[in-house]
Specification:
By secondary structure, the chain is an alpha+beta fold. It has 2 domains: 60 residues; 83 residues, Glutaredoxin (3-Layer(aba) Sandwich). Helices cover 45% and strands 11% of the residues. It is built from 8 helices and 4 strands; from the N terminus they run αααααβααβββα. A hairpin with a 2-residue loop joins β3 and β4. The longest helix has 14 residues. The chain starts with a helix and ends in a 5-residue tail after the last helix. The structure holds FE2/S2 (inorganic) cluster. The site of FE2/S2 (inorganic) cluster has 12 residues, from α6. Keywords: 2Fe-2S, Iron, Iron-sulfur, Metal-binding. InterPro entries: NADP_DH_HndA-like, NuoE-like, NuoE_N, Thioredoxin-like_sf. This is NAD(P)H-dependent oxidoreductase subunit E.
């Protein structure tokens, strides 16, 4: 992620708002580049696509996928849909909260190094429970496997355990 790009929302939008691209496609591209869609991008997006700011904001807020703030260095998205529930995802969620000291769906607070998010089906139902850790999919996750994955992720982003 390059934070300097967040201070240049016009250039950010110009780079991604090529003719024929939909708002959703542009939002994905911005989030892929920055890790989130900065609030300052709403106005130039509205101008570029001839939409109202409310329309752009409505799309961003409707889709749970789009973030409006930077993510924590370590982000865990745990599937809590039916197949994973039947394979113990709620017990895993309790373990994850106890192990990290964070709560699911509490957002990312300044200084927090881990963010926990509930999601509903990652397409790995036959290999549940499943989760994404910093964008990488993991299946058949046990508490022990989670602990190892988290330790490795913290090491990669240089966050103390
Ligand atoms: S229900 Fe969890 S991956 Fe589908």
């Amino acid at each position: 992620m390059d934070d300097s790009l967040a201070t240049a929302p016009d250039q950010l939008v110009q780079r991604h708002a090529q003719p024929g691209r939909s708002l959703i496609t542009i939002l994905h591209a911005i989030q892929d580049e920055l890790g989130y869609v900065p609030a300052a991008a709403v106005e130039p997006l509205a101008r570029a696509l001839n939409l109202s700011r409310a329309e752009v904001h409505g799309v961003i807020s409707y889709y749970h996928h789009f973030r409006t703030t930077p993510a924590a260095p370590v982000t865990v998205q745990l599937c809590r849909a039916e197949a994973c529930r039947s394979m113990g995802t709620e017990a895993l969620a309790q373990h994850i909260e106890a192990h990290t000291g964070c709560r699911f769906d509490a957002g990312h607070h300044d200084g927090a190094t881990v963010e926990l998010e509930s999601v509903y089906c990652l397409g790995q139902c036959a290999l549940s429970p499943a989760l994404m850790l910093n964008g990488t999919l993991h299946a058949r996750v046990s508490p022990q496997k989670f602990d190892a994955l988290l330790a490795a992720a913290r090491k990669r982003v240089e966050v103390p355990a």
